[in-house]
Amino acid sequence: METSVLNFLYLICIVLFIIGLKKLSHPDTAKNGNQIAALGMGIAILLTIFYPMENASNNYMWIVGGLLIGGVAGYIAAIRVKMTSMPEMVSLFNGLGGACSMLIASVEFYNLQAAGAPMMSVGVLTILFALFIGTVTFTGSIVAWGKLDGFFRDSIVLPKPQIINITLLIAIIALSGFIMAQPEMNYTLFMVLLVLSALYGIAFVMPIGGGDMPVVISLLNSFSGIAAAVAGLIYGNEVMIVGGIIVGASGTILSILMCNAMNRSLLNVIIGGFGGGGTSQGSGREAIAKEASHADTAIQLKYSNKVIIVPGYGLAVAQAQHACHDLEKSLEAEGVEVLYAIHPVAGRMPGHMNVLLAEADVPYPKLLELEDANEQFSSTDMVLVIGANDVVNPSAKEDPGSPIYGMPILEVEKAKTVIVLKRSMNPGYAGIENPLFYGEKTKMLFGDAKASLSKLKSEVANA
Amino acid sequence: METSVLNFLYLICIVLFIIGLKKLSHPDTAKNGNQIAALGMGIAILLTIFYPMENASNNYMWIVGGLLIGGVAGYIAAIRVKMTSMPEMVSLFNGLGGACSMLIASVEFYNLQAAGAPMMSVGVLTILFALFIGTVTFTGSIVAWGKLDGFFRDSIVLPKPQIINITLLIAIIALSGFIMAQPEMNYTLFMVLLVLSALYGIAFVMPIGGGDMPVVISLLNSFSGIAAAVAGLIYGNEVMIVGGIIVGASGTILSILMCNAMNRSLLNVIIGGFGGGGTSQGSGREAIAKEASHADTAIQLKYSNKVIIVPGYGLAVAQAQHACHDLEKSLEAEGVEVLYAIHPVAGRMPGHMNVLLAEADVPYPKLLELEDANEQFSSTDMVLVIGANDVVNPSAKEDPGSPIYGMPILEVEKAKTVIVLKRSMNPGYAGIENPLFYGEKTKMLFGDAKASLSKLKSEVANA
Amino acid sequence: MNTIIDFIINNIEMMYILTFAVFLGMEVISKVPTVLHTPLMSGANAVSGVVIIGAIILIKNANSDDYLILTVGMLGIALANVNVIGGFAVTNRMLEMFKKKKK
Amino acid sequence: MNTIIDFIINNIEMMYILTFAVFLGMEVISKVPTVLHTPLMSGANAVSGVVIIGAIILIKNANSDDYLILTVGMLGIALANVNVIGGFAVTNRMLEMFKKKKK
Amino acid sequence: MKIGIIKETSDNRVAIVPELAKKLQDEGNELIAEKDCGILALFTNEAYEAVGVRLTSRKEVLESADILPTILPLDKADLKQLKKDAILISSYQPYFSTAKVEEAANHQLTVFSMDMIPRITIAQAMDVLSSMASIAGYKAVIDAAYHLPKYFPMLTTAAGSIPPAKVLVMGAGVAGLQAVATAKRLGSVVQAFDTRAAAKEEVESLGAKFVEVEGAKDDRAAGGYAVEQTEEYKQRQLQKIFEEAVKSDVIITTAQLRGKPAPKLITEAMVKEMKPGSVIVDIASSTGGNCELTEDGKTVVKYGVTIIGNSELAAEVPNHASQLFGKNVHNFLKIFLKKGVVELNMENEILKSSCIAQKGQLLYKK
Amino acid sequence: MKIGIIKETSDNRVAIVPELAKKLQDEGNELIAEKDCGILALFTNEAYEAVGVRLTSRKEVLESADILPTILPLDKADLKQLKKDAILISSYQPYFSTAKVEEAANHQLTVFSMDMIPRITIAQAMDVLSSMASIAGYKAVIDAAYHLPKYFPMLTTAAGSIPPAKVLVMGAGVAGLQAVATAKRLGSVVQAFDTRAAAKEEVESLGAKFVEVEGAKDDRAAGGYAVEQTEEYKQRQLQKIFEEAVKSDVIITTAQLRGKPAPKLITEAMVKEMKPGSVIVDIASSTGGNCELTEDGKTVVKYGVTIIGNSELAAEVPNHASQLFGKNVHNFLKIFLKKGVVELNMENEILKSSCIAQKGQLLYKK
Ligand SMILES: NC(=O)c1ccc[n+]([C@@H]2O[C@H](COP(=O)([O-])OP(=O)(O)OC[C@H]3O[C@@H](n4cnc5c(N)ncnc54)[C@H](OP(=O)(O)O)[C@@H]3O)[C@@H](O)[C@H]2O)c1
Ligand SMILES: NC(=O)c1ccc[n+]([C@@H]2O[C@H](COP(=O)([O-])OP(=O)(O)OC[C@H]3O[C@@H](n4cnc5c(N)ncnc54)[C@H](OP(=O)(O)O)[C@@H]3O)[C@@H](O)[C@H]2O)c1
Ligand SMILES: NC(=O)c1ccc[n+]([C@@H]2O[C@H](COP(=O)([O-])OP(=O)(O)OC[C@H]3O[C@@H](n4cnc5c(N)ncnc54)[C@H](O)[C@@H]3O)[C@@H](O)[C@H]2O)c1
Ligand SMILES: NC(=O)c1ccc[n+]([C@@H]2O[C@H](COP(=O)([O-])OP(=O)(O)OC[C@H]3O[C@@H](n4cnc5c(N)ncnc54)[C@H](O)[C@@H]3O)[C@@H](O)[C@H]2O)c1
Questions:
Q1: Residue B361 catalytic?
Q2: Chain F nearest C-alpha distance from A370 (Å)
Q3: Nearest ligand to residue F168 Cα
Q4: Cβ neighbours of B108 (radius 10 Å)
Q5: CB-based contact, E164 to chain A, within 8 Å
Q6: What distance in Å separates the CA atoms of residue F344 and residue F253, rounded to the nearest whole number?
Q7: How far apart are CA D76 and CA A452, in angstroms?
Q8: Residue B306: Cβ within 10 Å count
Q9: Whole-number Å distance between alpha carbons of E209 and E223
Q10: B453, D100, E211, F110 - which has most CB atoms within 10 Å?
Q11: What angle (nearest 5°) sits at the alpha carbon of residue C85, between those of residues C84 and C88?
């Protein structure tokens, strides 16, 4: 009965976790959700520390010590980290969580040994599993972190990763069985298992392309959830079990969602990973144009103050003038200032863009001439280049060899970010490469301009 | 252990329920979801019947008999009922479910009495509660059914319903307390409680306007879920408890969603109900234009074969030509044939509609002249009248007294359904009432045409 | 009162289950499009017919000669089964319209 | 094998709880907009730090003189707490950007 | 009945086009037409003969016709030759060309003036003002663009960019709105104003800007017609117009006051201030014009501004204009011409208000 | 350098507008202008003086100018008076008006023909063909609408409805595309075709329909210019055109072949078959026209079809046309006129291809 009161209190924490996660999945409530989840965690920790436990020699000092060290370290890390390298950080944290399960498992195995409990019990099995999954999470996350951090390069490709992984996995299962088959505990074997698991974690993540790391992290995250749950089973501790499972489940779903967003399957990512990064975009390789996702572009648009649209022949070909105007309007509704920069020779006839935008009823005052536009870019958060190419080709400024050298262009690169909407990397009328597409600040949003624009519009509505 | 195996099997049924409900909430999977849930139920029933139970005198005949009678009756009813009167039917079914809990409660109370169990026990409390909620569901649903069926008219308004309800509630609680306080069971009091509950059910639903019945039904449905759960507590039967609770919860949420869809609060519906129908639209009153919801209109549009759009001056005022064209396109994408019927004097200048539609790039072949349109309406599933009024005013045909008598109009009423998009019931240029709006086949979709149209478009995408 | 508390404490797992069931019930149907409100309601209603299980148990436990209870129980089963069978059948019919026409 | 079955049978309520937890985990975040993937991941990750409870229990149970275990346990707590505190803090920062600018 | 078709003396349109002639015959009438009546509107003699219309001399047509619809009122010479109690149908603008009407009356003729038909929804099908005005409004813009030494739409080219032309439309009736729509289509920046309260919404419903002048007197009772405005309103209006006018490249004026001379909206002073090369198209010229310098039926250049005074712009689109006019006439005839027999029921609101002379006496109030 | 501005003898445009004159002076040149040079383009003498241009006699301008940009080539009389080694800038169409060029050469003049500038992206800023063509394309439609006895857009009225006019554009170059855009704006149904493969996409990018004729020879190498087509292609093309032409109310032809007479796309037979009242605007008239019956610079009516042959339509929008032309010239001068000093570097691709005569000898290959 004692514990069931504790468990009842734990139930509250769990509810807080659930509500927290739920809120985390809506932009408006996300922040609040995070705090609620944190609250839940805080309560759970305090409960565990102070809820009387029979024949326990509390050792509060050690506990508090651990909490302090970890807490301070974690907080500083979290505050210091650059916005851009947060994913790595998450991965690292996640790994540490895994490490903790690993440690717990090791200790408990040790304890069982001391207590000389019967082998072949669910208890042992649980412990072994906790060890395995904890360790994999640990090493796997570390590798993922390293990859994102540029520590390891994708170029490090293991020979025949599939083989390696399969063999490791088999070995691990076999060994676990063997350990349980032993008359009594055998710590060396246990350690071997640990090492094998560690290797597996590395071998699992190493071959996957840097571009897919987010998915992998989310996957490892669900692992660490499961690890926590299993560790919970060891103590029959509700909050660990349920909390862990929930994270495990949501983590898995999240990974799948992420894959869908890149429209690939989870399997494809992992296998593709085994295959060595596969087609995963932006997998660190150089001089590859970065690809943007609709959703992220949408959110950036929505939260920027000033956006300039650069229409080109592609807008005309896609007949996307109305879609473009719609997006413009919904952004304006969000309080974003939207302008158009019209290059004199955009399109295939003088005034081509004028005709289109007039048709879509874009108010004339929104149209900027070349010179004005080039002045305004520097104060612009985002430039949408819609089916334009030659007219934004920097080589007209920089490369005296270029056939269009000397032509005045729209210097979009002055802006903070540039998103280019076109169907491929094909050149435009002048038939020449466009360095802009590979630029630091540039991201490509491939696909028919009209389609992309309407996607963006709806995403802006959701986000 | 015996039972826990049973419970384990029950768990499967529950999972089936959950999956079923989940799938039920997506158009594409709904049908399948319904079947899955049904499967779950089937398994649960068979399990219960055939899973061995200690010292049970099974009485299979009786069980099967009941199943047969109920099954056949239910099936026939379900097949016979007209599409239009399905809600009533649902309400009726729901009531019967409630009735069942009522009976169970009665019997179990009787049994306890026989067994001379201790009063003041959770057991008794549970039974009483089961009785109360079951009965309320029963009578309430019957009333709701009657209202929708036109059995009871809204005009039957009880004096001061609030008062009545409150008093009944208090009485019920008091009595329950009293019953439990009794030294031993008292069946008469129990019966009184039953009657009171029945009355409460009636008093609760009676004052609510016919327009709000769907919400009420869904609410009663969640009651019957709870009833089932409570009954489940009596037997400590997992599937009943969990299944019931889930229905209870989802039913509540659903009621709330329904209210949002009519943008009103649940409370407002009930209190408003107490107030006597309140502003609830279409509450059976005559000569009130029926209001349409965006979602329902969207789904109808999507699943019809031929739609004709009748634009009028309102389209121009709202500058909704592009929105209109967009909707047209997304419908065409769904395989719906969309045409426009242009009335010669629609708008405020000759060719007003031409100018607008041309601007939105509606292909000329889609524009029908008056005569052709009037021929085509009869073969049309749905007509969207967008901000047109005089040009679709039947009195020009029917009422010799009308100032516009003799003017040729678009005879939209020949079509299966007519949806009118306008902001209010105000007349148009000619300043005269339009009988069309009150017509059998007509529904009004109030609001600015542009806003409505884009809502429709997105709904079409979702649905 | 404290009978109730005891009850809770003694059935702590039950509490977990109930709480989760409530959450699930809410989650599972959030985001349902308006057009599905009625079918969903009808489907859920059919599920609520699960009370039939109770009626069945009731009869199984009843002495085979206690005709009163047996009849009442049978009535209960019948009523509940109308709810179950009818409910699912009606829902099915409502959902017919969602069969997308082929073009 | 049958040890496991026994285990399940004996902890049937636990099974219910686990099953529901899985469903909840999946339901609760379905329909999350792409832009929230990373923050959500990070938040969930912080929650997975719940393993810290285990480490705490571990220490509470340890004999006050068994320094090996104590240190290991403390290390465990420290690591897990990095996960917890750091996790929530980072998530918080990620979500800063969602504070809608006033216009 | 015998229905006559003559060649307009000073207009390209023709009152009845072959297609319509056929309809009328099928309805039991006999049609005779003056030779070449439709040539200028691109309806050949063959076309008329093809549908069985007899071509003959003007004289015969005039002498034998029972019903004679014409675009413009007949002049003395013709009137003389007409049969007694022949029915004349045309647009007389009785408030202005009183003389013409009286002559007709003197000849004991029954005269219907289509421009007197009330502007009610039901009468739209026979509303020549509407049908001709909508063509005029369109043509006014085309003419303006034709004469303007500038480019109408905005144009961004490698050789610098050209701002869109500014168009100001005065009077947003049928013609005005049509002008607004057409100018908008051509990509110019369009402003319009009017005294009718409803006009604002109507103008904006075409995506153009409405120029507000406070304190306009509105009178819906006048059957959609505008009413004379107060003096100080006119002042404020002139002021406002002045500001806008000098900015405009094109001004199109359509302001009319039923039965009164058209309001003077553009003063000589304004024209002086306007940009050289600008164009004014004054559709109200026949009733005096909205611009002081307008000369009806002429295109003049004053202070570098081209001023086109033309109330019959529809005549410059003779082919379609004739079609519409004919349809109007047909719908009008339907009221009293059934199966080739005339039954004049003067109770009928439309006949009552459009019949300006019957059997000799004038019926409309000056 | 001394830059001269003269009044064109047979054109409303002026080569240098006041605004530009100012720029040139700021760049260190002296400008002198013939009196009234800009009048017809709405640039007053005052405007020129205001920016410090000295107005004088034509004679003085001709005799003293070092650089003389003109819209049209100068005629003999004027050439005589020019200084030796003066630089002439104009559009000579050297392949056609050979005589003119030779004369100029004989006077030891350096002659740049702006129409010879290559059609490459970088040269667009000085591409007079483009700038003038885009105005011409627009104006062609306006003229067509002006002369067409019909209503352009679709119109549904109480008096029946009018179908949209059918417009066929032949040759979808700069002028052609501009015509397509303008016609589309006016609400007509537009079709266009061209032999260049790219043209289809370009036409469709304006929302118009492209008329397919299989088997066209395309040659991007020709710098975007079209090439002569095979005989049997021409046959198929003529057939296709015939079908479309007879359905059309307006035909606008812009088909050109660099250095060759314009392809004949509309035969007399076709014109006979076309609807009376239809309008043909032939922008290619100066190089022989795309229609057999075209008479350059004239508007004729044949078989009831109005045929406007005018390659200088831009001249009818003198104000803006002059602005663009001037800007082109300016951008061109920038190549070799730095701080008022001329440095002719004949390596420069643009100069090379546009210089048709230098110090007496002709530089372009016939
Ligand atoms: N303005 C004039 O008078 C005139 C006349 C003739 C030539 N030009 C020349 O045309 C060029 C104009 O430059 P610009 O930047 O406007 O056009 P551009 O340089 O030709 O580039 C257009 C781009 O649009 C993309 N695109 C085509 N269809 C698309 C679609 N449906 N959706 C999305 N993207 C699409 C194409 O890339 P993908 O294929 O990868 O989609 C292409 O790279 C200049 O070189 C100019 O000199 C101008
Ligand atoms: N065609 C011509 O040449 C011409 C010229 C002059 C007059 N008229 C007359 O005008 C009338 C034309 O008939 P019609 O049916 O086209 O127009 P109408 O009869 O005037 O009705 C227009 C309707 O649109 C609705 N509306 C206005 N703004 C709206 C918005 N933003 N969103 C949604 N609905 C809006 C109004 O209802 P709510 O206010 O409730 O929204 C109004 O009832 C005829 O009577 C005709 O005789 C025609
Ligand atoms: N019943 C119908 O269906 C129908 C058909 C056609 C026209 N109408 C209505 O008839 C009315 C008149 O149409 P119309 O084109 O023949 O009008 P009109 O030709 O008589 O006058 C043209 C416009 O000039 C405006 N005007 C008058 N004085 C003015 C001033 N001082 N300043 C500015 N504007 C001034 C008038 O308000 C009118 O809008 C309009 O309201 C039109 O909607 C109705
Ligand atoms: N570099 C640039 O930025 C730039 C600038 C302007 C024009 N251009 C290109 O130059 C090319 C020519 O432009 P233009 O307007 O001077 O061309 P043009 O005036 O020389 O000819 C007009 C059009 O007639 C077409 N034509 C020729 N023979 C034909 C036939 N038998 N049937 C049908 N059509 C025929 C040509 O293909 C051309 O499109 C175009 O491709 C244009 O895009 C490029």
A1: no
A2: 13
A3: 4
A4: 24
A5: yes
A6: 38
A7: 48
A8: 17
A9: 25
A10: B453
A11: 85
Q: Chain E neighbours among F 49-108 (CB < 8 Å)?
A: none
β-strands B367-368, B337-341 pairing: parallel
Nearest by CB to residue D19, choosing from B1, B4, B15, is B15
Other Cβ atoms less than 10 A from the Cβ of C90: the count is 28
For chain A, list the contacting chains (3+ Cβ pairs, <8 Å). Answer: B, C, D, E, F
Q: What ipTM did this prediction achieve?
A: 0.72
Q: In this complex, is the C-beta atom of B361 within 8 Å of any C-beta atom belonging to chain A?
A: yes
Q: Which residues of F are catalytic?
A: 119, 124, 127, 130, 225
Phi, psi of D26 (to 5 degrees): -75, -50
Assess contact for D81 and D54: CB atoms under 8 A: no
Q: Which long-range contacts (CB under 8 A, 24 or more apart) does E209-218 make?
A: E210/E172, E211/E168, E211/E240, E211/E244, E213/E237, E213/E240
Query: Chain B residue with minimal CA distance to C67?
Result: B62
CA distance F294 to F288: 8
Instruction: Give the CA diameter of chain E.
Output: 70
CA C52 to chain centroid, in Å, comes to: 8
Q: Is the CB of F196 under 6 A from ligand 4?
A: yes
Other C-beta atoms within 10 Å of A329: how many? Answer: 14
Catalytic member of A154, A212, A372, A390: A390
User: Does the CB atom of residue F118 touch ligand 4 within 6 A?
Assistant: no
What is the identity of the amino acid at F6? I
Could you give the CA distance from residue F35 to residue B426 in angstroms, rounded to a whole number? 66
Cβ proximity of E174 and E129 under 8 Å: yes
The answer to whether the CB of B217 falls within 8 A of the CB of C17 is no
Task: Provide the whole-model pTM.
Answer: 0.77
Q: Which of A347, A352, A403 sits opposite F122 (nearest CB)?
A: A403
Give the single-character DSSP code of F122: G
At B113, which helix (H) or strand (E)?
helix B86-115
Structure tokens belonging to residue A83: 């916005």
Taking the Cβ of residue F207 and every Cβ of chain B, the question of whether any pair is shorter than 8 Å is answered with yes
Q: How far apart are CA A241 and CA D51, in angstroms?
A: 9
Pocket of ligand 1 from Cβ distances under 6 Å: A 312-314, 317-318, 345-350, 352, 387-391, 421-424, 426, 428-430, 448-449; F 121, 124, 130
Residue owning tokens 């009234």? F36
Out of E256, E265, E313, give the residue to mutate to test ligand 3, the one with the largest number of ligand atoms within 8 Å of its CB: E256
User: Helix-strand-coil percent breakdown of chain F, rounded to 5?
Assistant: 40, 20, 40
Structure tokens at F222: 């020709």
Query: Which residues on F lie below 8 Å from A355 (Cβ)?
Result: 181, 185, 206
| Contacts with E, F 221-280, CB within 8 Å | 276-277
Of the residues B326, B390, B399, B448, only one is catalytic, namely B390
Quick one: chain E helix, strand, coil %, rounded to 5? Answer: 40, 20, 40
Other CB atoms within 10 Å distance of the CB of residue B90: 35
**Cβ–Cβ under 8 Å, residues A87 and A212:** no
One pLDDT digit (tens) per residue for chain B, 463 residues: 467 788 888 999 999 999 999 888 887 788 899 999 999 999 999 999 988 877 777 788 999 999 999 999 999 999 888 776 788 889 999 999 999 999 999 998 888 877 766 655 778 888 999 999 999 999 999 998 888 777 666 555 667 777 888 899 999 999 998 888 877 778 889 999 999 999 999 988 888 876 678 888 899 999 999 999 999 988 888 899 999 999 999 999 888 888 876 667 787 777 655 444 333 333 333 345 677 778 778 878 887 889 999 999 999 999 999 899 989 998 998 889 999 999 988 988 888 998 899 888 888 889 998 989 999 999 998 999 999 999 999 999 988 888 888 889 999 999 988 999 999 889 998 889 999 998 878 888 989 999 999 889 888 876 6
